[in-house]
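FORM 12-B: Structure-to-Sequence Request
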């Protein structure tokens, strides 16, 4: 991914999305590979700093940033990507605001309209610029997120074209000492998000299309810093929840396997596809339920399982490496350990099993 984008843009940053999976083994590996960090809260900002990212490598997004969080970002020189006029007003009065690195997020498009609840419309963008300028703060970047996990670059190109006049205006007036930042966010596909294609598109497909869209605006690629914020596309497909069958029951004509984990650990299981499978193959149709104490704690219905399924068999939920880890709640049972597998080497624990959390 990084090589594909760098081939198109000499000044390129891959800013990994902390909200997707903030396990240190992941974030520190990416820092070591030269990536940046995208955060959406003061807590994530502190995690990124603890992981060794410098403030200049951090992009602070999100619709809500407290005054203390803004001050923390300003102290460390993180790029603040404002989301609203109210945030612009609060930022400009901060003691360290003058000279801050600031981008403005623009609203995602829906049917060609600036409809997303996130970011600023074109008119709001111009008003935010006036608010910030009165306090000596200059907008030096534009940020957007398509809001989709697209299988091609169509939505990215549409956003660049729609906001092209805005980008051209601010690129023309940029400080010659620093490139203008165009941050196109995330939304790149993972295997679990594919609906039209059977194989993940190569990152070069996106990078080439975005580069051509930039060229069509008449912009010099060397005059901009191109940023992407992938998260899910990097980690989701590589996370697998491994559970153990603890009981097998029959209800009417349905066989039910009870496993030792709950859907609280994979909260997105009802929102997008998660392939599921038993370690031992079989053809016996089985429903799989979790061990939480409510009826709709269902992992899957009609899964193929061994005819002689028994307690101790393993059941896996794939595509659980993104979003599910940070959003999991563990109020009934200990949080599971996390193991990392690197090639043929022996798996190692990168997070110990932890105690349940009292609400």
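FORM 12-B RESPONSE
SEQUENCE OUT:
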């Amino acid at each position: 991914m990084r090589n594909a984008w760098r081939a198109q843009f000499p000044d390129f940053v891959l800013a990994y999305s902390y909200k997707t999976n903030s396990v240190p083994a992941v974030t520190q590996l990416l820092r070591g590979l030269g990536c940046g960090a995208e955060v959406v809260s003061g807590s994530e900002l502190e995690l990124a700093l603890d992981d060794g990212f410098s403030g200049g490598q951090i992009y602070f997004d999100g619709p809500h940033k407290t005054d203390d969080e803004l001050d923390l970002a300003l102290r460390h020189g993180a790029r603040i990507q404002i989301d609203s006029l109210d945030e612009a007003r609060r930022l400009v009065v901060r003691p360290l605001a003058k000279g801050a690195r600031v981008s403005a997020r623009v609203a995602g498009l829906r049917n060609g309209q600036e409809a997303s609840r996130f970011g600023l419309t074109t008119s709001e963008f111009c008003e935010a610029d006036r608010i910030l300028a009165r306090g000596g703060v200059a907008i030096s970047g534009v940020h957007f997120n398509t809001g989709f996990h697209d299988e091609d670059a169509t939505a990215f190109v549409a956003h660049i074209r729609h906001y092209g006049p805005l980008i051209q205006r601010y690129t023309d007036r940029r400080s010659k000492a620093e490139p203008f930042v165009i941050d196109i966010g995330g939304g790149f596909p993972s295997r679990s998000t594919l609906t039209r294609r059977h194989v993940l598109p190569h990152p070069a497909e996106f990078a080439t299309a975005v580069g051509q869209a930039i060229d069509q605006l008449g912009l010099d690629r060397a005059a901009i810093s191109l940023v992407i914020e992938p998260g899910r596309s990097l980690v989701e497909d590589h996370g697998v929840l491994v559970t153990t069958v603890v009981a097998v029951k029959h209800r009417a004509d349905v066989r039910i396997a009870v496993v030792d984990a709950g859907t609280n650990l994979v909260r997105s299981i009802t929102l997008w596809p998660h392939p599921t499978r038993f370690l031992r193959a079989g053809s016996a149709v089985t429903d799989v339920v979790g061990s939480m104490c409510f009826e709709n704690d269902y992992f899957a219905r009609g899964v193929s399982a061994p005819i002689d399924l028994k307690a101790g068999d393993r059941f896996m939920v794939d595509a659980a490496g993104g979003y599910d880890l940070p959003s999991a709640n563990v109020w009934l049972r200990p949080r599971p350990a996390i193991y990392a597998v690197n090639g043929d080497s022996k798996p190692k624990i990168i997070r110990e099993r932890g105690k349940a959390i009292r609400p």
